[in-house]
Design goal:
The chain folds into two domains: about 5-50 and about 380-440, Urease, subunit C, domain 1; about 50-370, Metal-dependent hydrolases (TIM Barrel), CATH 3.20.20. The chain is built from 14 helices and 17 strands. The protein has helices at about 80-90, 95-110, 135-150, 180-195, 215-220, 240-250, 250-260, 275-285, 295-300, 305-310, 330-345, 355-370, 405-410, 435-450; strands spanning about 5-10, 15-25, 30-35, 45-50, 55-60, 115-120, 150-160, 200-205, 205, 230-235, 265-270, 290, 315-320, 385-390, 420-425, 425-430, 435. The longest helix has 18 residues, at about 95-110. Bound molecules: N-carbamimidoyl-L-glutamic acid (NGQ) and zinc ion.
Amino acid sequence: MSTDFHLQQALLPDGWARDVRLNVGPDGTIMTLTIGEPAQPDDTRLGIALPGMANLHSHAFQRAMAGLSERRGPGTDSFWSWRDVMYRFLDRLNPDAVEAIAAMVQVEMLEAGFTAIGEFHYLHHTPDGTPHDDPGEMAARICAAAETTGIALTLLPVLYRWAGFNQAAATPGQRRFIAAPDLYATLVERARHHAGRLPHAVVGIAPHSLRAASMDDIHTILPLAEGGPVHIHIAEQTAEVDACINTTGSRPVRLFLDQQPVNDSWCLVHATHMDAGEIRDLAASGAVAGLCPLTEASLGDGLFPAMDYLAAGGRIGIGSDSHIRIDLAEELRLLEYGQRLTRRERNVLSAPGVSTGRHLFDAACQGGAQAIAQATGRIAVGQRADLVELDQRHPVLAGRSGDALIDSWLFAGDARQVRSVHVGGIARVKDGRSVCREAVSRRYEATLQTIMADWTS
Ligand code: NGQ
Ligand code: ZN
């Protein structure tokens, strides 16, 4: 069965249009798009319609520990002390918990205006580090969550092998992640099997970082991508930049670009610390820089050189990574505010002819879709009907039209202006709430009661 939509105002690839009608085919693809047409009686009517955005970087389980590491320890707190808390927390998670948390995360993402998720999935094994009977059990649970919530999933099973650049043995806290390339191939095969039952799933691969996977490991596993997306964490913390220079003589992004041809299949997550040459060459590669501004702030990573990178034509997308907050508007706002605070200017990440919010929104829609190989981020024929409707009656948007709608949403609003969300033409958020929020949040709460029972921060 096909469905017709009528969009009163819509952001199309060429700009804003009024009275847009879409015919959406049974697989959720936009078959026809006409501009300047009145609504027909059976049309699904949307007021202000934006394309859905991909959230390109998620470790879903970390949502459940948001707020549990905000207490200073005996020394200086850092990313690394946060990571110890994170390892202690994930020790408590079984497959049921992983599914419950992932579903909650996806519900919150949909309600914020994200229509697709890139799940960078490394919590593979049982607590003692033995693979599950089905080594892809945890991947199956991520897929089950996506089946419940309806978000489009790009599953990125992770290769995690070492504890540092010199290939130090993994630590006990890392035992649930560890795989050598043989087991990794099985994990990817099982991920493909489980994702196969979802309508909009993509599987890619992800060497965790230059710390956790060697260049040789990366070259060994690359064929498993089968042309799909490849993601890696890189240059997030200055300590890892220093360790990389000490062991290899190169900065991480430089080392990587020199040793591994990077193209538009790649997403380099964070890439926070780059010199001018790295910025120029990453921008020229066609890869996406996967930015996670709220997590990067929360973890004390540093500030991505957004102005120079965008000026060089670099591609970006947004992820919510540790999920300290899940809010599309807030991520883009912080990306711009980081620049304003350090440069003492306004409207830094902007471009001629469009507003700052519009410029950032467009860039993150395009880069996000590219990075996780999902047909989202554009309202156009041949794309999936992933539609985010803003609430015309919300005070934050009062009297606005065109780019001012996006600016007001991103700079003055949050998820509360998102009224409805369709993924592949199916309504997943109505009146601001995921249609499965109640069941998902009930299960989440019960799960957290158990996990938190004897937790001490
Ligand atoms: C992760 N998160 O894989 O969850 C990492 C922490 C690590 C971020 N890098 C673990 N933000 O990098 O070793
Ligand atoms: Zn990450």
